[in-house]
Amino acid sequence: MLRHAAHRLASRAAVAGRRALSTAGVPAQAAEDSAFVEAWKKVAPNIEAPKTPMTLMQPRPPTPAAIPTKLTINFVLPYKSEIANKEVDMVIVPATTGQMGVLPGHVSTIAELKPGVLSVHEGNDVTKYFVSSGFAFVHANSIADIVAVEAVPLDQIDPSLVQKGLTEFTAKLGSASTDLEKAEAQIGVDVHSALNAALTG
Prior knowledge:
The protein is of the alpha+beta class. It is 36% helix and 30% strand. The chain has helices at 2-21, 34-43, 53-56, 159-175, 179-200; strands spanning 71-77, 80-88, 90-95, 98-102, 109-113, 116-122, 125-131, 134-138, 143-148, 151-153. The strands form two sheets. A five-stranded mixed sheet has the order 2-1-9-8-5, with no helix packed on it. Strand 1 (71-77) and strand 2 (80-88) form a beta hairpin.
């Protein structure tokens, strides 16, 4: 009997958890958390309540009724903004699950990026970047935010240096004696292999 009760409670908690993660409940406008403010006033009536995440949230852009003709992208690195609020036709990102094309009206999703080519398509023009890792956040309002740890335009990469690096890291992988050395060498091989595939493919 206790087992059945625990199972029912766990099922209800799981359903509640799924509801909590839904974006349907996110307000379109930033709002004050009134329950928190009331509780704060009871505890410390002479001190102003601190700001909560709810009050700091930016208003959520509305989801358009019709699918837009363009996708708005933001592509940022830790030290600069590479692309800001640019309208394009499509972007293809190197997700860990495979190449992912994002068009206007794409379903909301978050994708982890692996070393590979990110391509931005604008009419007949295609701009390609090599990204090391990061995340792509695709929103229901046809806005995509791409955050990369490191990125460089593909045409600025020297193929001879890529081959040299691949050879060096392959040799390091073969001679590595500790787990740390093996892991560092494997990362080097993976990145240089992806760079080589991007330049030759």
